[in-house]
Amino acid sequence: MIQVKDRSEIALMRAVGLVVADALAAVELAVTPGVTPRELDALAERVIRGHAAVPSFLGYGSPPYPATICSSVNDVVVHGIPGDLPLRAGDIISIDCGAILDGWHGDAAVTLPVGDVPDDVRRLLEACEDAMWAGLAAMRPGARLREVSGAVEDRVVECGDYGLVEDYGGHGIGTEMHQDPHVLNYRTRTRGPRLVPGLALAIEPMITLGRPATRVLADDWTVATTDGSWAAHFEHTAAVTPDGVWVLTAPDGGEGGLARAGARAAPWAAAPCPTCPGPM
User: Fold this and answer.
1) How far apart are CA 71 and CA 84, in angstroms?
2) Backbone angles phi, psi at 275, to 5 degrees
3) Cβ neighbours around 262 below 10 Å, total
4) CA angle 49, 43, 221 (to 5 degrees)
5) Are 26 and 43 in contact (CB under 8 A)?
6) In which band, very low, low, confident or very high, does the pLDDT at 267 lie, cut at 50, 70 and 90?
7) Euclidean distance between the first and final Cα of the chain, in Å?
8) From CA 249, how far away is CA 43, in angstroms rounded?
9) How far apart are CA 236 and CA 17, in angstroms?
10) Cα–Cα distance between 21 and 51 in angstroms, integer?
11) Pairing of strands 92-101, 69-73
């Protein structure tokens, strides 16, 4: 079932979204050559617990996920388990982070360069982030879910010849981390459900420099490209409101990214935990 939240519940999701944003900001500052993903994981957990929240990922699934963040380096697309191999200059690392506060979930991801990276890798990251914002911008009341998926795909195609990973996608989110509906990153004939105020979605495209095919490694979590090509992954949690998209895991509520994508954030978007005006 699709969970539709009222305005007070969306405000609670904004609170946990800002916890996730703080954790990702701290990790981003710490991403330098020589740091290990396990050290980044410990930092993210300290930030989350410092807000009286708990990590969403730790203990999730079967086998239980063993960390607070997913740290996916270079050819790892998603769900990489933090380890002790130091990052090197020129690497890229996707940091996926989730938290729970007062029973509500927030989920976001960013792919970061470790020092300077080649131009084609930099463009890969930019294309993936642009595709995420295109999907977020399509979250209008009355739109169909297919329009969100199609906006992601269209932006990837506009940016260049990238592999668009189809095996994984976004999801509904609220009192559970993964809820209906599943959000594809490509257009299908099925229109999908209609978007209504109070619906929260995590939009998360994944693209590669090569083929989009993936494989799951022996740890039953790590997902890597089959051809060894490098991958990017970006994600934000956002809510549909009557007055614009509210990106709950962005400190500015999505104002900057949505404006670049030609959309409007909710007028109160940058506020930390307001009471949303009007019905949800």
Assistant:
1) 11
2) -90, 120
3) 9
4) 95
5) yes
6) confident
7) 18
8) 18
9) 9
10) 12
11) antiparallel
Q: Which amino acid is at 138?
A: A
User: Is the bond leading into 181 cis (omega within 30 degrees of zero)?
Assistant: yes
95 beta partners: 71, 110
* Matching residue, tokens 């360069």: 113
Q: Which two tokens stand for residue 166?
A: 């189809």
* Burial group, residue 80, by CB count within 10 angstroms (0-12, 13-18, 19+): buried
- The pTM for the full model equals 0.96
Q: Which amino acid is at 121?
A: V
Alpha-carbon distance 117 to 135, whole Å?
A: 26
Instruction: Report residue 128 as tokens.
Output: 């993936």
Confidence tier at 280 by pLDDT (50, 70, 90): low
pLDDT at 272 over 80: no
Neighbours of 142 (CB within 10 A): 10
Structure tokens at 152: 């992601």
Rounded to whole angstroms, how far apart are CA atoms 260 and 236?
16
DSSP E strand stretches across 60-152: 69-73, 76-78, 92-101, 104-113
**β-sheet bridge partners, residue 76:** 224
> Are residues 214 and 166 in contact, defined by beta-carbon separation less than 8 angstroms?
no
Spatial distance between the Cα atoms of 99 and 107, rounded to a whole number of angstroms: 7
**Structure tokens, 23:** 């954790």
